[in-house]
Every structure is written in structure tokens, then in C-alpha cells.
Amino acid sequence: MDCVTRKLHRLITAAVLGSFGFSSAATAGGQLTLLCWEGYADKSFVEPFEAETGCKVNAVYVGTNDEIVSKIMSGGGTADLISPSNDTTMRLVNADAVSPIDESKVPNMADFIPEFKRPAWDVKDGKLWGVPYGWGVIRIIADASVVDPNTDSLGFLWDSKYAGKLSMWDDIETVYTASRYLGFKNTYDLSDEQLEQVKAKLIAMKPNIRKYWFTTGEMGTLIASGEAIGGNSWESTIVQLRADGKKVADLKPKEGRGGWSDSWMIVKGSESNPCVYPWLNYVSSAKAQALAHKVTGFGYPNVKMADELDENTKAAYTELGMTDPATLTNVDWWQPVKRRAKYLEIWNQVKAASN
Amino acid sequence: MTTIERAVEPARTSIRSARAIERRRLLLWLLPPMAWFTVFMLIPYAMLLYTSLGHVDDMRFIPGLSLDNFVRVFTVDPYLGVIIKSARIGLMTAVLSSVVAYPLAFYLAFHVRTQRLKFLIYLLVIVPWWASYLVKAYAWKTILGSGGILNVGLQELGFVHEPVRLFLYNEFSVVMTLTYIFTPFAVLSIYAQLERVPTSLIEAARNLGADGWMIFRRIILPISVPGIVAGAIITFSLAFGDFVAPVLVGGPDSVMISNVVINLLGVAFDWPLAAAIGLVIITLGLLLISASGWLEEKTQTRF
């Protein structure tokens, strides 16, 4: 998911913490090394796990999915569990870098939303290769006082009414968004010709762009201050704005929305580590996911998770439809993009194009 | 062998051994800088070159001896265009910084009489550097934004009725922010050069009937040129390589070359292309420094 929200922050933390990550303090229960996003090994839920199982958890934070791939590919022993996103999971499975999940050892998965029990990005040869964890839908948001909340198409992003008033994510997800609007079904495997059309479409949107946002917090500020009135963003922006009393519409475009979902995967050879399955089952529990939601604000697959949240958080979570199966229809889940360098080049060309 | 030669021989030996010791000592002295140079300069540059000649296939680096990446930098949109744009932003920042810095440096060098006041102003120039770059760049958002101080002020005074959106999120705000942040370098550089202007020259000129403007034009300005050049080089380089200002206050087309390199390293995992861009920039930088060194040499006034 290139966890966007705090891309820069993560890079820095990863660089700083990376060097301390492996400090060893062996305890009786064994050791578990996680290669994951910041917030995926927060002490608020790691400490109860350590107390319960006697397993010592070492977390190494990463900033990008590529970092996970390159660390795992460059040799074993670096980690037991990793938390890649759905645009990366299958790459690791195909590279024979991870081991299949024995679902009988993760009973808490029974409480998962059906879509997350055996999602396409974790299944190959009938086997499950990852335990879904944090997830989210790329929201199309707009100031409800300016844009009709019933708008059901991405087309408004190109409406000259909104010249200089939109803000889109500075990420190739925005390339995907334009591709969806053009009706391409192969969002993640576009041909050169399609990419050129996408590029033209994105350049056509530029007069409407006030700024490409870099963090979800920034997008919130842009809307709150009136610099922008809409664009794409993550759930956290909506939560932030609604908490500040701003009426923000969460549009449901018929062209579909992007979706990201991380999974815990077992690095090949670590399936025998006695701490691996206790962790997988623990982080799949409603309680642990509620604690994790407090830290990250992400969606989590356990349906009972929302009941563990406090009133306000639960209300915000429900309002976003995170517990509603309807939210998960018409989601164009992220997939590995073979020619990501090309996509990025297109995106940089769009950004460099003068208005 | 004659007696004399026999007598000289031990002396020769001792001279030779003294030289040997000196050579060894010299080596010992040279070793740390050589090691430093090798570890921190030669090896990284060699690695950069090595990386730039290879390519990436499915997340794996494949070494090679291909110049394709360099060809891409110059022929494929947007790399060269973005380098040129970054250079333009760097140049504007350098010129503006010099223009802003010169009067202050001038005042500091010639008009501040007491040491204490001089120290105070000096400190005021440096103090902003104690604050984080991010905070300062962010501050410009609150100054230039639609609800910012500038717009509110203009509306209160009745000059405009709607917030002016041209102040923020474009190249103007990027150059503005970079100029603000890097001007202290120009001040210090120009000030250091102005300090070298001998008072005797000015006094002599005055005795010969020169007025203030003439003294400035004929004596002070020519002497200060190397300081201006040095300051401009520093501010240009810092602005050229900046990646924070375009992210914070830049507009939809304010992407700079460092942003592209970061993207290539992170999102695209195309380290070879990123390395090639790095080498192109380093080469351009070397050319620039050589040119400015030559210019500084040319313009340096000797007394």
C-alpha cells in the first residue's frame, strides 16, 4: 500500500529504527522478527502478546513494499513475518519466498469479513499464503457544500467548474484512478497506448489541480482551509475532517475505487518458529485489531473488531462503511504492476507537464 | 673506495634512512586523508557509476556495461526537462538571495560601528538556522495561503475582495521559500568578502574626491564579486537539489529533480536510472564549480 499516509515519516523512522531493530534480548518463549509498517507492531498490542506467550517481538519498520521484497530476496534470516500489501503479496508467492498458511492454526480468521477470508491476492494453487490485516479503500471525497454528495462518477474531477480546486494523491494510484475513468479493466497491466491515453487524461485534469498531496493529513488541511474542495484520499482524511465538523461527502463512483490490503506472510523457513502462529492468531483477534485501529486508523478484517472500539471511534468507523459489505463491492483491489517504472514515468511526465 | 668516500658513506646511509623515515612518516600522515577520500568519495562514486551502468529486472539489479540509462536521462521525457526546471529554480533563488543579501551584508560590513551590534545582527542572520527547515517552509504556507496573513491583510485593507490564489502552490512560492531559507548563506559569503575591503582604499578614494556611489561602483562592488559568486553557487546548489519546498509549497507542476530521484529509488525501484541522473547532476555540478572557480579567480582583486 506504500502507506502513503506517512510515507516520508516512515522512511525516516525506518532508517533510524532499522539499525536498532535486531537488538536481541532472548526470552524463554522465543523470538519473532517482524518486517512491517510502522504501527503494525505498536507496543499497545505487542506487550500483551509478549506477556501472554513469552515471545519477544522485534520489529523492523519498512517504508516501501520494495524494501520488504529486496530484504527477503537478498537472503533468509532477516525476518519471520512480513506485512506486504496486495500489490506485492503475489510477487513474493511466485518468488517462492513465503510459506503457505495453515488456517487451522489461525482460528480467529473465522470472524473475518468474507471478502478477507481467502482474497485473490493471497491465494494460489488453492492454498492461502497470507493473513489479511490492515486495509482501506481509496476514497473520492468532496466538500458536500460544493459538490453534490450523490455524484456517482469520477467525471466531476475534470469539470472546469472546479478549476484550481482539486487535490489528488501524488502517487500512481492517481494513474489508476484516471484509467478507471477511461473504463480500462486492466488497471494494473495497461498497454503503452492505454498509458498514453491515461497521461493525456491526467494532463487534462491539471487545470483543476491546486496541489498534489503528499500525506493524508495534508489533504485534510487543504480541504479544511478551502484551498481544495475534493480529490482522492484515505479514510483518515474523512475522519479528520468530520471530527472538525466539516461536511465531507464520501462519493461512490460507478467506475470503482482502488483498494489496498496488507497481509501477514510467513517467510520461508520460519513456519517452524513456535511464535509465528500465536502471533498470526493474536493479531487476527478483534481485541488486537481494535488496538491496532487506534494506532493506524486503518480498516481491519475482523467483523467483531468494531465492537471493541470506543463510541466515537466506532461511529466514525461505521459511517465510513468499514463494516458494511456494500463498501467492498466495486473495489478495484491493487495488484502487482509489472511495469511500475513505466507507470511512474508517466506520472512524472504528468507532473512535469506545464499547466 | 677512497678514504673520503668511506667516510662519507655512513652519512649517506643516514641521510637515506632519514629520507626513508620521512617518506614513511609522510605516508603515515597521508594515510588518513587518503583513506577518508577513498572510503567517502572514491568508493561511493564508483558504486554510483557501477549502478548506473546496470539495469533492474523484476526487482533485481542486473550489473552491466550499458549507457542506456544515460541515454534515457537525455532523451526520455521528463528527466532533462525537470533538471532544467530545477536549474531555473536554483538560478532564480541564487539571484534573489544575492539581491536580498547584499544590502544587509553591506550594512553589516560598513555601517555597524559597535562590535556588539555587529554580533547581534550576525546572530539574527544565523538564528533561523536553529529552527527546522520543515517548520520554516511550512510557515510560508500560513503566510501565502488563501487564509494566510498576506491575503487576510490585503482583504482587510480593501486591495482585493477575494483571496489571491497566485501566492501559493506554484513556482513563485517555491522560489520565495527557497530564497528565504538559503539567503543567510549569501549574506555570510558576501559579508566575508566585504570585510576584506581595506579602509585605506576608501579613505584614499574619498581624499581624491570620489563620492559614495563612485566608491561603491569602482572599489567595493568589484572587490565583492567573488563573495557574490561564492554565495550564489551555494544557494544555487542547495536550491537545485531541494525536494521539500516543492512538496510543501509547490504547485501541480513544481516537481524537481530530487523528487524524481526519490520516486525512482522508492516507488519504481529503478536505482540504475536514479544513479545515472545523479551522475549527470554531479558532472554538471563539477562544470559549474570549475566555471565559478575560474570566475572567482578572474574577479579576485589583489592588493
Quickly list its features:
heterodimer; A: 355 residues; alpha/beta; D-Maltodextrin-Binding Protein, domain 2; 7-stranded mixed β-sheet; 4-stranded mixed β-sheet; 12 helices; 13 strands; globular; disordered N terminus; B: 303 residues; mainly alpha; MetI-like fold; two-stranded antiparallel sheet; 2 strands; 2% strand; flat
Q: Could you explain how this protein is built, in words?
A:
The complex is a heterodimer of chains A (355) and B (303). Chain A is α/β, with parallel strands linked by helices and 355 residues long. Chain A has 2 domains: 4-136 and 260-323, Periplasmic binding protein-like II (D-Maltodextrin-Binding Protein, domain 2, 3-Layer(aba) Sandwich); 137-258 and 334-352, Periplasmic binding protein-like II (D-Maltodextrin-Binding Protein, domain 2, 3-Layer(aba) Sandwich), CATH 3.40.190.10. Helices cover 34% and strands 16% of the residues of chain A. Chain A has helices spanning 7-18, 43-53, 65-73, 89-94, 173-181, 192-205, 216-224, 235-243, 276-283, 286-296, 311-319, 340-352; strands at residues 31-36, 56-61, 81-82, 98-99, 123-124, 127-128, 131-137, 139-143, 166-167, 230-233, 248-251, 257-267, 331-333. Chain A is globular. Chain B has 303 residues and is mainly α. Chain B folds into 2 domains: 3-52; 78-299, MetI-like (MetI-like fold), CATH 1.10.3720. Chain B has 12 helices and 2 strands, in the order αββααααααααααα. In chain B, a hairpin with a 2-residue loop joins strand 1 (55-57) and strand 2 (60-62). In chain B, helix 9 (212-240) runs antiparallel to helix 12. The termini of chain B are far apart. The model of chain B has no long low-confidence stretch (mean pLDDT 89). The chains are: A alpha/beta (355), B mainly alpha (303). Chains A and B meet through helix 3 and helix 12 of A and helix 3 and helix 11 of B.
